[in-house]
Amino acid sequence: MFVNCFTVTMSSSIYTNAIKELSKEFGKNIPRFLPYEGGKMGFITNLCCVDTDINVEKICKKYNYEMGNPEKMLIENSMYNSNYTIYNTYNKEGQKFRLELTKSM
User: Fold this and answer.
1) CA angle, 25 as apex, 10 and 72 as ends, to 5°?
2) Which pLDDT value is given to residue 105?
3) What is the CB neighbour count within 10 angstroms for residue 55?
4) For residues 50 and 30, is the Cβ–Cβ distance under 8 A?
5) Among residues 56, 41, 32, 34, which one has the least CA distance to residue 11?
6) What is the spatial distance between Cα 23 and Cα 27, in angstroms, rounded to a whole number?
7) Domain ranges of the chain
8) What DSSP string describes 49-104?
9) d(CA 2, CA 73)
């Protein structure tokens, strides 16, 4: 299946509610977001992985969240669930993102 990997930036004052809203809008049982460290003071950025059938741009505009450019990635259907977390590979060439099985705590 194809997914879009992209960042979403939002105010840190609404972060908890915003993540819940996005999770509902993006679909049930999707890969976990990855919070990025650093960035603009008062804002939090997350890396997201969402099915290409979902209009993430429209959803981000609805809530006035800043969305980064989506990158399409092919994954195994069995990896599209909350047991996996999206990560940046930081590779200059090849695949820019990867899904990894989330370690239990």
Assistant:
1) 80
2) 52
3) 12
4) yes
5) 41
6) 6
7) 2-101
8) EEETTS-HHHHHHHHT-EEPPPEEEE--GGG-STTEEEEE---SSS-SEEEEEPPP
9) 6
Q: Does domain 2-101 have CATH number 3.40.50.720?
A: no
Give 32's DSSP letter.
B
Name residues whose C-beta falls within 8 Å of residue 19's C-beta, 6 or more positions apart in sequence.
Answer: 33, 46
* pLDDT tens-place string over residues 2-20: 999 999 999 888 888 888 8
**What span, in angstroms and rounded, lies between the C-alpha atoms of 15 and 104?**
23
pLDDT value at residue 62: 93
| Token pair 């990896």: residue | 79
Report if pTM > 0.85: yes
Count CB atoms within 10 A of the CB of residue 64.
10
In the numeric block, which tokens belong to residue 4?
Answer: 């879009």
Measured CA to CA, the distance from residue 20 to residue 76 in angstroms comes to 25
Residue positions counted in the chain: 105
